[in-house]
Automatic annotation (TrEMBL):
Keywords: Hydrolase, Membrane, Transmembrane, Transmembrane helix
Xref: SUPFAM superfamilies: alpha/beta-Hydrolases
Entry protein name: Alpha/beta hydrolase
Superkingdom of the source species: Bacteria
Organism: Brasilonema sennae CENA114
Regions crossing the membrane: 248-268, 289-309, 321-341, 353-375, 387-404, 416-435, 441-459, 466-488
Coiled-coil positions: none
Length: 489
């Protein structure tokens, strides 16, 4: 047995345990309650043994969840606030349809729930929301001016703000999300401009978080602290807190440790399986041309198919997911075109299928076990679980084609394929956005493609079976789509 592999496995297991310790200790001194009111899943976080402390409602954005906003929840709770987070309809663990007025209804349910908590001073309440949630909290602050003492809008969308409503409005936007910076500037102007008169509820402030875009702003300490300081100034809170939310760092270390463990286990095996490519140089050359040619052609055909589908129905709700269904269909069509151009495919075996399922299980744990308590509603509710096989099946051709294309390649060429797929995916979906602007949310996912494809490429380099790689990757990618995107009505 490979001694280095054993040492790597032991080190990986220790890092996994250490990462869990880091995430668990982040809740030290905090009280956590899981609630459900009128079908709205909620998460309540507050300091232990607290009495009559200010309460904060925290709302996520489109395709988000209560877990995605936990960075604010932990920072505020450690600073002496009681925080209520929830899943809007069709998001996270909430299976109810997203309809007109449902955002306000969900917020009202969360408002009633936070008033029930014994630690909360009902006369001192505030709100914080991101993107879609920012519009919801600003609107609630306008409709109920005297109910909430302050509102924090992160990556703000729009609302009919005035110099008087909502009270004490802080606007935040990342320096890398230009459109939302513009929205924030327009809102600030409509709200009367910068103002330090928090005592009268006229406080107004715009904070631009450096080097942050629409998603990463949620994990930036600068954003967390700006929100905390604004609420402290509103409520006159003097309690000092040096807590910095580092749970995402622990999450990435946990993910890397599992990938290292996967590599260690693979290297312990004498035979990890090999692709059966031809040894003839000329055949390999023409095979490579077909592989790259198929990859280049695929996004144009897939984007065209989405355009045709948009003419016969709502492209947003394909496959039972808002936007996510269209993404999976694009992957499926692009993969079929890529396979057709390469015109070669090995036969699956029970062994390769078994390895593919095992690969999925390992990657599922590596990617999602900690995500459930850090940033993503990873456990699928029944409405999402039944969509998972269909979404995975739709994505399968892409990963099968990817496996065929990388048949028997070395490390250098595998890196080239990772780069090529990342560029094609980003470019292909930019084309989709140009043709179908109604799918604009896809633009926020583009930075994630290189990371996801990188993880899959690494896994395929360890277990060199085309069908195993394709099955494991498609199942995990399908799970990610099923977990992240809102349910269609």
């Amino acid at each position: 047995m490979n001694r280095n592999a054993v040492l790597l496995a032991v080190a990986a297991l220790l890092l996994i345990a250490f990462s869990w310790w880091g995430v668990i200790t982040a809740q030290t001194g905090l009280l956590v309650r899981h609630l459900n009111r009128e079908g709205v899943p909620m998460l309540y976080v507050a300091p232990r043994n607290a009495e009559k402390i200010p309460g904060v409602l925290v709302a996520h954005g489109y395709a988000g969840s209560k877990q995605l906003m936990l960075g604010y929840g932990h920072v505020l709770a450690h600073a002496g606030y009681a925080v209520m987070l929830w899943d809007f309809n069709s998001h996270g663990a909430n299976a109810k349809p997203l309809e007109r007025g449902s955002l306000q209804q969900n917020l009202d349910v969360a408002y009633a729930a936070i008033l029930e908590q014994p630690e909360v001073d009902s006369s001192r309440l505030a709100m914080l929301g991101h993107s879609m949630g920012s519009g919801a909290v600003m609107s609630a602050g306008i409709q109920n001016v005297n109910r909430f003492a302050a509102t924090v809008a992160v990556s703000p969308t729009g609302a009919a703000v005035t110099p008087k409503a909502p009270r004490n409005l802080q606007l935040q936007a990342g320096s890398w999300e230009g459109g939302f910076v513009g929205n924030a500037q327009r809102l600030l102007k409509a709200a009367g401009g910068e103002n330090e008169n928090l005592a009268a509820g006229r406080g107004r402030e715009l904070v631009v978080i450096p080097n942050a875009e629409h998603i990463t702003i949620l994990f930036r300490n600068a954003s967390h602290q700006a929100a905390k300081n604004w609420l402290d100034a509103t409520f006159g809170v003097q309690r000092n807190s040096d807590y910095v939310d580092r749970r995402m760092i622990w999450y990435f270390l946990h993910l890397l440790a599992w990938l290292a463990l996967l590599g260690a286990v693979a290297s312990m095996k004498e035979d990890t399986g090999k692709f059966s490519a031809s040894s003839k140089t000329s055949l390999r050359f023409f095979s490579g041309l077909r592989s790259w040619g198929g990859l280049l052609i695929a996004p144009f055909v897939a984007s065209g198919v989405l355009v045709l589908l948009s003419r016969s129905g709502d492209i947003n709700s394909l496959g039972g997911l808002l936007v996510g269904g269209a993404v999976s269909i694009w992957f499926g069509v692009a993969g079929l075109v890529w396979l057709a151009v390469m015109f070669r495919l090995p036969r699956p075996t029970l062994r390769t299928i078994g390895l593919g399922i095992a690969l999925f299980v390992v990657l599922w744990i590596a990617f999602g076990a900690m995500a459930q308590v850090v940033w993503l509603q990873w456990w699928l509710i029944p409405a999402r679980l039944k969509l998972f096989p269909l979404i995975s099946l739709a994505c399968f051709p892409w990963f099968l084609a990817s496996g065929v294309a990388q048949q028997d390649v070395g490390v250098g060429k595998r890196i080239l394929w990772w780069l090529g797929q990342s560029v094609i995916l980003i470019g292909g979906f930019i084309l989709v956005l140009y043709l179908l602007p109604e799918l604009s949310f896809i633009s926020l996912l583009l930075p994630l493609f290189p990371l996801i494809i990188g993880i899959f490429s690494y896994a395929s380099s360890l277990y060199k079976e085309i069908w195993s790689y394709a099955l494991g990757s498609a199942l995990l990618f399908g799970w990610i789509l099923a977990a992240a995107f809102p349910l269609a009505s």
